[in-house]
Design goal:
33% strand, 334 residues, alpha+beta, 27% helix, 2 helices, six-stranded antiparallel beta sheet, single chain, nine-stranded antiparallel beta sheet
């Protein structure tokens, strides 16, 4: 007799399709749990990394701020020593002595905040500081040399110039423009300053020798005085892209001269630093500059620090930072 199977009761003997559905459901739940765990783990890693990065950035930012502040302070020290040279050994030694004091004071102040800081001038590049100051009563002198010559040469065999600041008085300007010229063999650059038509403000014209000169008018000075940052490219605080010092003349290799034309057509002050210079009125092999400084003559030339390499060291429990920075304030291509 053939065997007879009892009828299957639904739900007590799963069919293959139901088995597969259960497996898919279990697998989906498992994957969901794994994905949630991975997301939580990644969030933890990212959070930890952010905390660590913030700590490094905070320490690094403090060190960078210290470096930038040091550069500003050293630039100010340079300017002061050029103006107030007192030692018999020249501006270079005065600068080094002041830097030593500055380093000691800075180190003491930073130590109070738990920071070991040190600043030292590694090397100095010598130069010359050329300037004309105001009269004793606050008035302005003509842009002539000591002998009153209106067309004259301030410096020759110059390779680089920095921090060229020139102030002219609008009321002193004549019909003939006062002109600053940078010239070397095969290239000439000039900047001319004249009074605006109508007598309100000044007009500045720049000629780089390669095309049509560019002119711009500036006004708004209450006392009639306009400061031109010749190497910084600004007039009365206004940036002017056409004003690029010694464009096509200064290339860092070939020497050039700086001269004034129609110096009697303007009155004002100026100062700048050059890396090298020969006295055009004396033996071309004898650079001039007096030590100790003699500022009785106007304009005058004294020894200077053109640039300095300064080592900056800033150490905290979290970070040690060390760098050597070159300080040459007012270089137009720095």
């Amino acid at each position: 007799m053939a065997d007879v199977k009892p009828p299957r009761v639904r739900g007590t003997d799963p069919e293959p399709d139901e088995d597969r559905a259960q497996m898919i459901l279990i697998t989906g739940l498992t994957l969901a749990v794994i994905l949630v765990a991975v997301v939580l783990l990644l969030n933890t890693v990212i959070y930890t990394e952010n905390l660590a990065t913030r700590g490094v950035d905070a320490g690094g930012a403090e060190a960078v701020d210290f470096r930038d502040g040091t550069v500003e302070d050293v630039a100010a020290i340079m300017e002061r020593e050029h103006r107030t040279e007192s030692g018999s050994d020249g501006v270079g030694d005065d600068f080094n002595a002041t830097m030593s004091v500055y380093s000691d004071v800075t180190g003491d102040l930073r130590l109070r905040d738990g920071v070991i800081a040190d600043v030292s001038a590694v090397t100095n590049e010598t130069g010359h500081f050329i300037a004309q100051d105001e009269l004793a009563d606050g008035g302005y002198r003509a842009m002539t040399n000591e002998s009153g010559t209106s067309d004259w040469t301030l410096a020759t065999t110059v390779t680089r110039t920095r921090n060229y600041q020139l102030t002219v008085n609008e009321r002193s300007l004549d019909e003939e423009p006062f002109t600053v010229v940078a010239n070397r063999s095969g290239a000439t650059w000039s900047m001319s300053v004249s009074q605006n038509t109508g007598g309100d403000g000044i007009e500045v014209t720049v000629d780089n020798g390669t095309g049509t000169p560019e002119s711009e008018s500036f006004d708004g000075s209450e006392d009639g005085s306009y400061t031109i940052d010749v190497t910084g490219g600004t007039v009365a605080g206004n940036e002017w892209k056409e004003l690029v010092w010694a464009e096509n003349v200064q290339n860092g290799a070939e020497s050039y001269e700086i001269r004034y034309e129609n110096g009697d057509a303007a009155a004002g002050t100026y100062h700048f630093v050059v890396d090298e210079m020969d006295d055009p009125s004396a033996d071309p092999n004898e650079p001039y500059g007096t030590t100790p400084a003699d500022r009785t003559a106007q304009p005058y030339v004294v020894d200077a620090v053109y640039s300095a390499d300064v080592e900056v060291h800033h150490r905290t429990p979290e970070l040690e930072y060390r760098d050597v920075v070159r300080v040459a304030p007012g270089e137009n291509d720095a």
